[in-house]
Every structure is written in structure tokens, then in C-alpha cells.
Amino acid sequence: MLYRKIPKNGDELSILGFGCMRLPVKADGSVDEERAVKQIRYAIDNGVNYVDTAWPYHMGQSEPVLGRALADGYRGKVKLATKLPSWLIEKREDMDKYLNAQLEKLKTDHIDYYLIHALVGDLWDEVGKLGVADFLDKAKADGRIKNAGFSFHGDGKDFGRIVDGYDWDFCQIQYNFLDEKNQAGTAGLEYAASKGLGVIIMEPLRGGNLTRNVPPAVKEIWDKAPVKRTAAEWALRWIWNHPEVTVVLSGMNDETHIRENLRVAGQAYPNSLTEAELQLVKRVEKKYRELMKVGCTGCRYCMPCPSGVNIPLCFEEYNNLYLVDNPDGEKFMYAARLGGAVALGTPEFASLCVQCRECVDKCPQHIDIPAVLESVVKELEGPGFEERVATARQAFKQT
Question: What is the pLDDT along the chain (399 residues), one digit of tens a residue?
């Protein structure tokens, strides 16, 4: 495992962090705690020393599961990160209320890296007026948190003023080879680093979209590389190639993927990719932009939908319609996965949307979700949809 330092405190953090937003789940959607605990501890045993969670992950279950995973001496082996749910804050006292509840859920007396969660410009202004700076100062002074940071999901124009708005120790941004100009982007990465902040990276694989069902046209480009690597390794190495990056969070929930990520994290030095390799990644980026229809990362911040639409899954299948060269197969999979054949027989398809727009303000990617859902309906619920749903139900033995 390779490590990089946080400039302001000298902490040496593993370049691979364990993100607990996408823990393994059971058929009913609950966290498979036994498997999750084994995965987290395996990663720690193999050098990972930064673990990240948040109040809303897994509908509130991520923090308690992680707290139990860090029992038996594992808490002392890691730097623990979690986040203040900024959108729930109505008054100054709420900040202490949530932090104290998180300490209890995580079974610890302090949070090593505490973030103000999911900031955009307006939200930063709101929590600022409510006294977030005073909260962070006092929580650091009394030892409940050690380092203060923020995660960012806003427009790049607001990133700099948030960096400059408090004496932060670190920040967390979305970054991958498709997001160089999205949100904070490369400019934000470099600005934060220039101010001495450690930079934690989220969504390095765009919720798995850069590795799951790799389109043939993209695979053809990867296959031209003299050095053979998986799509995940290319994507991670591209990020770690940036010396400004401190930690890359991976939402690891598959044992094979964990082992691969650990292997790469022992080899990925900054500035180690050749110019030819960087150009190869650039060609892959261009091809993805030609193919993808919606920039959803599957973070599920938009969920639950009041009308029962499984928004991330709708968007996944919509992208797959164009990424995978099998339109009939993808239309059937949409009918099976969203039309009620799978997911306990409960329909979750896009046409359930009533345009309430509750999801729009929650989306970190600023997607006009209702508008895209209309496109999903048009392209995946057209002629033959009811027949595909019926066939899928029969295939999965649901009536």
C-alpha cells in the first residue's frame, strides 16, 4: 500500500480509502453486515487506513455497520471520516445533535476527518449563517473532531470561495477522467492543493459506470495499450497520477474488486503514466461522451422517490441501452428489473414519475431527472413493454 500525507497535519493516509456508501446488500436491500464487516477488515488488514461513511448512506445503516466493523481493535488502525448532513440543519444546535448521534452510532469518542456534507454555494451560505464555523472550531477544541473538511457537489465557480471560507484541513471532490471540468474539476483539485488541503476523491469510477458493461468501442481502445490493465485499474491509475490527490475512495463491495484495488494501490505512483497512456485515456473519455446519455453515478441521493421510481436503476438501464450493443436485451432487462419481475415484484419504472421534482434539488450531478425519465419512458417503455414485463415475470416466476 502506498501512502500520501495530509499537508496540514502530516497524517500518512493510504491512497486507497474504503467508501461505505455501497456496501454489499441482501436481496431485501439491507446491508449484508457479515460480509461488509469481513470486507472492511480485510482492506484494513492489507493497508487501508482511511474509511468514509455518512449519515444518509444505506438509509442510515452505514454508520452503525461501520461502527461494529471497527470493533475488536480496528478503530485504532484507521482514520475515520463521516459527514454532517448539512441539508438537515435548521439551527446551530442541530450541528451538535447530529455529531453527537454519529459518535454514538460509530461507537467512538472522536471523528478523525469530519466533513460538511454535499456543499453547493447556496447551502454553504446557509450553514455559514447558522454558525458552522463556530461549530467546527468548538468541536475541534473539545476533541470530538480532529480535522475539518467538506465534500463538494456544486458548480466550480463556488468551489474557491468555499475553500477560502474557513481554515479547512481537507476537502472531498468528485473526480475521474470524465469529470475534469465538472463540479470542482481539475482546477478545483489544483486550487485546494495549492492552499494546503488534503484532497479526497469520490466517484473515481462514476458509480461503477466506467467498469460495468464496458462498451465494445471502449474496450477496443483499452485493448490497444501495450500494458494490459482492467478498466478499473486504468481509471484509478489516472487519478493517482495526479500528485495533488491524497486518497481515492472506492465503494468496494466485491472481494475480487477489493483485491484488485489493493494491488493497484501498491503500485500507482504520481506522475507515473506515460504521455501515450494519458492520450489513451483521453480517447476513452471521448468515446464515452459519444455513447453515454446521462451522467448519473448511482449515488442514490435522489432516493427514495415518493412515487416509487428507482431513479438510479432507470438511468443505468438507459445508459446501457447505448453502451451495450444489445438493444433488445437491454429493453428486456429494463422490463425485468424495473417492471416488477425483480425487486420483490414492486414496479419501479420511469413512467411512475409524477413530475414532483423533489429529486432535482438532491442530485449532486444537477441532472434534470424528470426530463430524463421522460426519455427513459419513450425509449424503454414503448411498444411491447407490457409483453416484456409479462415475459420477465414468468421467467422469474412472479405473478
Answer: 999 999 999 999 999 999 999 999 998 889 999 999 999 999 999 999 999 999 999 989 999 999 999 999 999 999 999 999 998 999 999 999 999 999 999 999 999 999 999 898 889 999 999 999 999 999 999 999 999 999 998 888 899 999 999 999 999 999 999 889 888 999 999 999 999 999 999 999 988 889 988 989 999 999 999 999 999 999 999 999 999 999 999 999 999 999 999 999 999 999 999 999 999 999 999 999 888 889 888 888 999 999 999 998 899 889 888 877 678 888 988 888 787 665 446 889 999 999 999 999 999 889 999 999 999 999 999 899 988 888 877 765 543
pTM score: 0.83
Q: What is the dihedral of CA 254, 184, 240, 293, to 10 degrees?
A: 50
Q: What domains sit in the chain, N to C, each tagged with a CATH number?
A: 3-290 (3.20.20.100), 311-395 (no CATH)
Cell 452503525 found at:
64
Nearest one of 5, 23, 58 to 253, comparing CA atoms: 23
Half-sphere exposure for 17 (CA within 13 Å, toward CB):
29
Q: How far apart are CA 158 and CA 306, in angstroms?
A: 30
Residue 216 vs residues 212, 254, 260, 325, 356: alpha-carbon distances, Å = 12, 23, 22, 8, 37
Which uninterrupted H or E stretch holds 148?
strand 145-152
